Amino acid sequence: MGVSIREIERLASLARLELGTKEKKKFTNQLSSILEYVEKINELELSHGKDVKDNQTRARAKMITDARLDQVEDFNNPENLIKQAPRSKNNLVRTHPVF
Amino acid sequence: MELCELTIDEATKKLFQKEISATELARACLKRIKDKDKEIKAFLEVDEQKLLKKAKEADQLVARDRQKKPLLGIPLAFKDNILVAGKKVSAASRILQDYTAAYDATVTSKLKSAGAIYIGRTNCDEFAMGSSCENSAYGPTHNPRDIKRVPGGSSGGSAAAVAADMCLGALGSDTGGSVRQPASFCGVVGLKPTYGRVSRHGLIALASSFDQIGPITKTVKDAGILLSAIAGKDPRDATCGNQPVNDYTRECEKDIKGLVAGVPKEFFAAGLDKEVSGVVKKAISDIAKLGVEIKEVSLPLVKYALPIYYILLSAEASANLARYDGIRYAGIKLNQEIDDLRSYYQQVREVGFGAEVKRRILIGTFVLSSGYIDAYYKKAQAVRRLINQQFAQVFSQVDVLLTPTSPTTAFKLGEKIDDPLAMYLSDIYTVSANISGIPALSLPCGFASKMPVGLQILGQNYAENAILKLGYHYEQASSWHLKKPC
Description:
The complex is a heterodimer of chains A (99) and B (486). Chain A is mainly α and 99 residues long. Chain A has helices at 5-14, 21-38, 50-66, 78-82, and strands at 88-89, 92-93.
């Protein structure tokens, strides 16, 4: 499947990437080849989504049985993590205004 | 023989018997790094002061305390995506260039408790995305066997450091072959444990359903020693299994007579270099002489392994790398002030990520996006399950599988960097183990045009004992591990 430059721009926007013009062109060509290769999986006929559903049901069942109890635990050094951020204030990570 | 050329097994024995000191061993590794690393560039950072300090402490420990630390005084290198508290870790990316780890990875704290000493962090492909170590933001690593060639990737720095005896062993991470393929290219041993055998807590995530930390060592027994030290249940990693951890060193020496090895015909088809094929087939016939029954088997669905790998890996990577927003972790500083949040994200990520990372994020975003998710991501998940079922069926007939690790030996620097698809095809034999979660070992089995060839041994889930013992017996009979580059 070929992708267009517009598609690359849409994907870049979703992924919060700002690509240059040369980059957009390069990625358009490269992604088209890569997607053409991975489309090989369409050679396989699967039974009307049953395999997909089975997969999801099993994954969900496993997550429920392996989950720990929903109990609050103390975390002993939040400051150590907060100071990893480039900007912080009053033990909070600082960000640009969202609105 | 220089002390840095010892294996972990040899060095621990000499250290316990006080034939050598940890300080002498550390100095020997540092000298080798000074002599060779300007050319090879395996390390991004070497902590000489800390290494010598810890080595001195190890030498001063009384006998009673030494016995509790099976890796006392052993210098190990860590791939630049495994957290060591207080040390810089960047995933070989500019977006994390100023990030200092706030905590030890579980594997780090286990190795520290066992007495091992951190020597430094090794170069890798950025965020572990690559098969050549050319995608690092800090320049490529060179293969110690031939510096015009790649060491493989993404754990190229770790493999090169071990091959050049700059350390006694190293940790890498394997998502699609990133421990095994560089081990194969550099002529050393690389092990990808079963998914869930080793905790991923403190490993910078690439693809959470594929990633595993694994040892890169000079011998199979050394891989077993490190695996015993790092494996086990971890409450901080919900995907970690609670199977008991064997003494993998003892397991290596157990008898292999009666073991049944399958040779999947699909791994010897078009695309495999003729010379590499000949070397691997010779290794298989040598294994047969050790009393192992060889059977031809078939895994027809493996032809879909690489396509589904790149769909699922990219999807998971695009999700995992969304956290690198310039807000949470110290990294790249922009030249201009940006007030708008969205523009800030876009700029930081544009400047902070390299081309391969952006490429995979774009693929991942595509396969998860509305209109395409069913045809790509969900279908790939279903095919993944079919491949796993096929492996399970084959393992009802055989104990292990034998294949080449890579279709070629180490290629030249720059040869594949402009052709991403050609680069991806380097992983064609390794990705199946990550897709199915099964353990896989790569070890040297000869040379093709003077470059090392790796034999891959795959086993059932949690059957590292089987692949290690077969690897060990073949290694001892063949002695390829003694053919050193430096």
